[in-house]
Design a protein that fits this description.
The chain has helices spanning 23-26, 40-43, 46-60, 81-86, 97-111, 182-185, 187-206, 224-238, 268-283, 298-328, 331-335, 345-348, 352-364, 370-376, 400-413; strands at residues 13-14, 28-29, 35-36, 64-69, 74-76, 113-120, 126-132, 137-142, 147-152, 158-162, 166-170, 172-173, 179-180, 211-215, 255-259, 338-342. With 414 residues, it is of the alpha+beta class. The strands form six sheets. A four-stranded antiparallel beta sheet has the order 1-8-9-10, with no helix packed on it. The protein has a three-stranded antiparallel beta sheet with strand order 5-4-16.
Amino acid sequence: MGLIADKLNISNLSAPENWLKGFFGSGMLSSSGKKISATESVNKIATVYACIDIISTSIATLPFQIYKKTLSRREKMNKHAVAKLLYTGKPNEYQTPFEFKQMLEAHRTLYGNGYAEIVWGKDGYPKELWPLHPTQTFVGKDKNNKYWVITQVPDGSKRKIPYEDVLHIKGLVMSGLEGISPIAAIREQLGIESSSLEYTGKFFANGTVNKGILTTPGTETLSKESKDLIRGEWEKYANGLDNAHRIAILDSGLSYQQIGINQIDAQFIETQKFTTEEVAKVFRVPLHMLGQLDRATFSNIEQQSLDFLKSTLISKIVSWEENIKTKLFTEKEQEKGFYIKVNVNAAMRGDSITRASYYREMQKLGNMNINEARELEDMDPIVGGDEYRVDLNSISLTIADKYQLSKSDSKGGD
C-alpha cells in the first residue's frame, strides 16, 4: 500500500477531457463577459470567500474523535493512529488537525473535491496525510478497471496513486467518481457581481457622475485644442472622490447635461444584495453569517444557525466520517467496532441557561451522567460522576399497573 512514483500513462487511463484546460484551470466566460474560475480572482469576491471560510472553519473546529464500541459502552481511543492524525497529533509535518481539515473542506467547498494522500507506516496504520492540489488532481480508471488518483507534483511531473491510498472528500457527485464545484452553478451570477465590482471601482475612480456632455450655445464649432482644454479643466473639478461635493463653475456659456442613469436609479445596492443572496443560497449559508441583518432577529438567527448545522454541515460531516472509516481503518478494526464520530455538541450549544436545562433533562432521563455533561463544558470529571441517574417520579410502563395496584392495596389495608 505504499506510494507509486511511476510516471502517468495517459493511454491507459480514462479521465475528464481537457481537465487542466477546463473550468478550473483557464476559467469560463459568463454571459456578462467576465471570466470566472475557481482561482484567486474568484476568492476576491467577498461573498464567495466568506461562504468558503464559514463552512471550512465550522468543520475544522469540530473534534474528530475515535471510539471503540463494545457491548456495554463505547471507549474513546485518543491514542489510535487516526486520532493522532486528526485530533490529538498532527496529520503531517506542516499542519495541525485544524489547518488540515480547514484546507480539505475549503477544497471540497470551492472545487468540489478535497484530496489527501495517505502515507502508511510499516505497521499498516496511516502515518501521514498530505493534501493534493484539487485543480491538478483527478480520478481515472485504467484498462483493468482499477481506479487511480492522478496528480501533478510541483516539479511538473505526474504521479498516479491507488485510489485506496487517497482520502477523497467529495462535494455533490454526478458521475460517482468526483464532486462538482458549486462555482459552476453560480458562475453566471458571479459574472454579474464581478462586473458590478469593476464598475464600482471605475465609477469612483473616474467620476462622481455617470456620463454627461458639455454644450456651448450657438452653432460655433470648437477646435480640437479648445475641446481638450475645456475637458481638462472640467475633469479637474468633476472627477475623483476628492471632488465629489465641489461645485464646478462653467463660463463662456457652457452647460452640463447628464446622460444615462446614475447609481441610485439603477438600484445598484439592491443588485449587490441580490447577488449575495444567490451565492449564499448555493453554499447554503445563512445571510446573517454574511453580515446581512436586514430581516434578522435574535430568535430567527438562533434558528437559522441550527438550520445551518442540520442542512449544511451534517451532510458534510457524514461524508468525512464515512470516508475516514473506509479509508483509514482496517477491515478488522471496523469489525471490532472502531469508528470516528465528529462531535457536533459544541456547535449546538446555546447560552448557559439553555445548556443547563438540556443537561438537567438528559440526566433525568438517564441519557447522560454528570461527567459527560462536565466533559462538554471542558471540566474535569468528579468521583461518582459516571453513574447514571433517573427521576424518581418516572417509572416503567411495564410496572405502572402493579404500582397502582400496590397503592390501592395499601389504602384498603388502612
